[in-house]
Write a structure and sequence with these properties.
By secondary structure, the protein is of the alpha+beta class. The chain contains three helices and seven strands; from the N terminus they run αβββααββββ. It is 35% helix and 29% strand. The longest helix has 25 residues. The model has no long low-confidence stretch (mean pLDDT 89).
Length: 150
């Protein structure tokens, strides 16, 4: 199985957000202000262990994401509802792209259901492969964590 590196995570994240939500994000030179950020996670079992994809975005990012993905005006978006649902959907699609990248078309993976993370579940923000993005002035982070089988 291939390993996920920052270039792979960055490229797939940019592709998925561009294609699905019409968001064009750039790698951030510094970590953005996540303030009261919201996060979603999706886990999947691979032959080598458990993989976690954690996506974290500022409220402004989630508003832009839901607007692009759902075709809503910004004032119609509640980042805790449409924003989080959109973040979970992007996590699901991006996890599928990562699975294809990791193991090819016929890989044996079991994909879980995306869920919202609270502050106590986020783990170390620097653990795993981390990519910070600037999405037209809003902060977004994608993090991939591999936990090998015992």
């Amino acid at each position: 199985m291939k390993a996920v590196d920052s270039e792979t995570l960055q490229n797939l994240t940019q592709e998925v957000l561009g294609n699905m939500a019409f968001m064009f994000i750039e790698p951030a030179e510094e970590s953005g202000d996540f303030g009261e950020s919201l996060a979603a996670c999706v886990e999947f079992q691979s032959p080598d262990g458990t993989e976690s994809l954690i996506l974290q975005g500022s409220p402004a990012f989630l508003t832009d994401l839901a607007s692009g993905l759902l075709g809503l005006e910004a004032d119609e978006v509640d980042e805790n509802v449409e924003g989080l649902h959109s973040l979970k959907e992007i996590a699901n699609v991006l996890a599928g792209e990562l699975i294809r990248e990791l193991g090819g078309e016929h890989a044996q993976f079991s994909l879980g259901i995306p869920y919202v993370l609270d502050d106590s579940q986020g783990g170390s923000q620097s653990e795993g492969v981390v990519c910070d993005f600037d999405a037209m002035g809003t902060a977004f982070r994608a993090r991939f964590v591999h936990q090998p089988n015992a």
